[in-house]
Membrane protein (Metabacillus sediminilitoris), 201 residues
Amino acid sequence: MKIRILFYVIGLFLIGFGVTLTIKADLGAGAWDALNVGLSNAFGLTVGSWVIIIGIILMFLNAFIVKGRPKFFSLITILFIGFSVDFWLMFLLKNVEFDLFLHQVLSLIGGILTLAVGVAMYLQTHFAVNPIDQLMISLNERFRLSYMTAKTIGELSALILAFALQGPIGIGTLIITFFIGPIIELINKPMTKRYEILIKR
């Protein structure tokens, strides 16, 4: 159980760190992250606060889609990620700016890889799923859409809203949208093996 909790907590904090690096790169954040930044700039509150607010909205939306009850345990995941994003953005990386294009690219790549490792770690635990991921599952269950189609619908919806709110959309957004899935899949296999070895000890 200790290993499971450790993977869950570290994974979520890595997700927050990865998100922060992609935002700091200033080349375009992921669709949902761009939406949260856009909301923060337009209405105030921290980016992490909007992560939590959007997560709660999605939690109820997912329940409505499948005509079921909200998965309240996902609040734990939402809170961890929201606090993690604010921790990195407001404290450790608050005054960090990447002026050189090379540093921006490295920040983006580092953010994507860190994000992928974090997702692969927290998914091993099978605890409450992030409402963004749950949206894909809900659309699949209700409308029999493929995961790829359901994921695309969610990402495009967030992208449209982020664009309307002038969130940080750029080449990085496209890179994250098309490459984060395959990278997570690549990292997930060795992560699963490592997790199973540690659990059996």
Summary: Residues 17 and 88 are 6 Å apart (CA to CA). The mean pLDDT is 90. Residues 2-200 form one domain.
